[in-house]
Amino acid sequence: MRIVSRIAGFQLMLAMLALAVMGIVTVADVALKYFINRPIVGAYDLVESLLPVVIFHGLPATLLRRQTIVIDLIDHLVGLKGKRGLVVVADLVIIVLLILITWAMIPPALQTYDYGDRKLELGLPLAVIWAVAILGMIGAVLAAVAAAFASIRRPAAKVK
Q: What is the DSSP annotation of 86-131?
């Protein structure tokens, strides 16, 4: 659990850094375009390329800290043991879906690698972006598994 927490923390720092760069580049691009009519070449490609970093590397910390959106329609009807069962079922569904999403990302990633697809202005290989996204999803799967094990070990009274 401790190593997964460290991995998720590293991924969160990476996501925050990518978000900061996206914001700075966007503001600088707009300001340069407005004031001197010289936008940053490749700003759109850079922001677009950093978006998967923000999404896929921010996800593990969210899952590990259980800060996902929860809709509790029946929680008040089932009691503490029922809530614990619902949490376990939800954890299993999340893990399976994350694995399936990760698995589905592999063929298009391999295809972009085989064809050598690149971003138009930056020339960044799209396979690199796919690899970063897949690594983020692997971290998300690890975080979801760690959160599931933590909820199984937690006493029923502490289930939210």
A: HHHHHHHHHHHHHHHHHHHHHHHHHHHHHHT-B-TTT--BHHHHHH
